[in-house]
Amino acid sequence: MTILHDEGQQAIATESRRVLEARMRKEDLLPLLEVEGRYHEGFWATAKEQGWTALALPESHGGLALGLVELGLIAHQAGRTLSGAPFLTSGFGAAKAIELYGSDAQKARWLPGLASGDSIGAIAFASGADPLPAQPGVRFADGRLDGIAPAVSGGVAADIAILLAAGADGPVLAVAELAGVERRTVASFDNSRCLADLVFAGTPAERLETGGAARDAALHILALQAVVTAHEQTGGAEALMEIARDYAVTRKAFGQPIGAFQSIKHRIAELYGLVELARANCIHAAAREGAEDFITAAAAARLSATEAYDSAARDCVQIHGGIGVTWEIGLHLHMRRARSLALEQGSTLFWEDVLVDRLAGEGA
Amino acid sequence: MSDLEGWRAKAAAWCESMVPQFGKAARKGLSVEEDLALGRRYQKAKFDAGFAGINWPTDLGGQGLGHIEKIAFEAEEMKHGFPNVYFGISLGMPVPVLMQFGTDREFVKERVLKALQGEEIWCQLFSEPSGGTDLAGLRTRAETDGNGWKINGQKVWTSWAQYSDYGVIVVRTDPTVAKHKGLTYFWVDMKAPGVTVRPIKLAGGDSHVNEVFFDDVRIGDDHRMSPVGGGFAVAMATLMIERYVATDSAGFGPHLDLFVDLAKEVRLNGRPAIEDGRIRQQIARNHAMRAGLDSINVRARLMMQAGMTPGPEGSLNKLVAVRSRQKLSELAIDLQGAAGFAFDAHASPKDDWASSWINAPTGRIAGGSDETLLNTIAERILGLPQDHRPDKGVPFNEIPA
Ligand SMILES: Cc1cc2nc3c(=O)[nH]c(=O)nc-3n(C[C@H](O)[C@H](O)[C@H](O)COP(=O)(O)OP(=O)(O)OC[C@H]3O[C@@H](n4cnc5c(N)ncnc54)[C@H](O)[C@@H]3O)c2cc1C
Fold first, then answer.
1. How far apart are CA A363 and CA A294, in angstroms?
2. Please, which pLDDT band fits residue B307 given cuts at 50, 70 and 90?
3. Stated pTM of the model
4. Where are the beta strands (DSSP E) in B7-119?
5. Is B277 in the A-facing interface, judged by CB distances under 8 Å?
6. Which of B218, B241, B264 is a domain's end point?
7. Chain A hits for B206, Cβ within 8 Å
8. Per the CB < 8 Å rule, is A349 touching B278?
């Protein structure tokens, strides 16, 4: 697939940006930091109404049959304006797992709800510090799940989850409805991510894959989500770079704009470099969906986007001086989001390993 | 045991004995007001035990000892997380400046004694909305008013102003001369009519800094602590007083041992993270950096003990340590994976990585931003030229806003 966006794709980027800029305000996001388990309902309503939940899913099940490129473009805009809920990414991951590894019956049962956004999907692979554990903490036996899946993004509100669980014959990729499942909300520095520990106790679940295939499938889903998240991170980093630039040309010290000081000017120019590398890696990765080197491309996108967003958060705050660390200006919304997105779908440490294993020919 | 060692041992024993009453456990769950009240009691206990104003003159309630004893005490005190943060600025800068430049000595003595016993708190009213780094560009003005002065304007980022009884302030008394020549230094009563304090909530959730508004605040000329137009020099002297403080190579974040413990606990790829090369490298590099800073600090202490003036390399501590703490805290969050999301707004940056991370940016801005510290090193220590300063020598009221 070409990495030059066509007119339709450009229109998706422009339109989603217009809608989100009109509807997302930091004044509505700040209070969400101080309560647990609440998300920005307007954001999620917009995602449903605009068809973003359906975008990358098959037409046969209520989707729009577009792909990672288009969803990435929207995630980028969502990152710019600090998306108010994690479900766009997690719902996409859950739907892809069912689309790629589920039976026709499973697809018919769950995909339409995920495509319309009426069902919220979550991914619960992690256990301990490991985003893709060899020995998952949740057990799968006789069609039932037991154990705790820690800090699942969207876990507070999700209707269904895709899990990596430990079965008798190795790991199992499973799907479970969460109706009766206990959720322990996690108090986090970015509470609108709606993190919860999911407590499974004899919860009915259906198997999608087993053994090595389950692990490969989970990595593939994680990589798909990582590419979406990388777009979101790049969007956040880009917004911070622009905020820093705007401040540096207006704020004055010693009779001149602070942007005239080379230490400030170069810091912002370095951010430009990080943002453009991340963007380029995102565009490349999105276009490699389905290709042999997809995981490699996803890892590269993920690594450069995490670096860009964390760096932009540090530097943009620093350039603002005292005003940068106030609650009200809200730069900490980005700072917090940079860290929560750095953890979701696996940290830099994880993706470095995935990437180098592949480059060294040791990958799965 | 040398005198200094004896002093240190005595300080350590006293601090240890204060832990049940004032340590981290005693402070847990307290509101800011309750913690401040506890802090006042702690400061009084410190005064009674002879550990307040260690290097201040005895006739003002101090102990008449040297910087070296003060630093030795602070190094012990820092280990325990006592509620002393409310007095850090007060006793660190404004009150020493009052001792040095206050003209009414009776008044000075009364204030110093109350401040040393935690009864009164002083704040430092320097930074303004229009600028903190460019201190001489400040806009709050004082005009003559009968025999005294009338202050109008706004300060910002004033730490602990909401609990302060007094403050030291730099204001513009003559806008027609070059910016740093038209400033005068006063003390003000924070409870005086026309002073309004409004707390500012910070990114980490706390509100220890404030906006302070001055509306026709009238003060007598006896509040003046510098010659008229000579305020900039006293402001500089204020910022220099804190040269001799105990520094923390952890950048006021967690000790490196806590990172090592975390790395031993967490598993990466099925093995303890402490076996991972990337983690080992960060531990090694952070150790080398912190050990270097510690050595600089010890050497400075020994030089002081020998009556010498420590070198300028001590100014590296905050710059290097806080920046590194910020990144190490991010890595600690990454390392924890799912557990890394957890956050407790009341946790201490000294032992919680998320708290250390979210509060790190304030440390890179307050008390001289990274950029300011780098400029100082470049220009004052290394003799590199200053940036172009278009406002240099221009009368303040002719500098474009
Ligand atoms: C937690 C906290 C507590 C504080 N407590 C007090 C207090 O008690 N009393 C008080 O008076 N002030 C206090 N301050 C204010 C602090 O001193 C100022 O925030 C600081 O001096 C920076 O000023 P500013 O915020 O106006 O940023 P600005 O001066 O506007 O600086 C903005 C950016 O430009 C950079 N910059 C400025 N000049 C240059 C230059 N020449 N070269 C390169 N870069 C430059 C700065 O480093 C910064 O990155 C506090 C601040 C904080 C965050």
1. 12
2. confident
3. 0.96
4. none
5. no
6. B241
7. none
8. yes
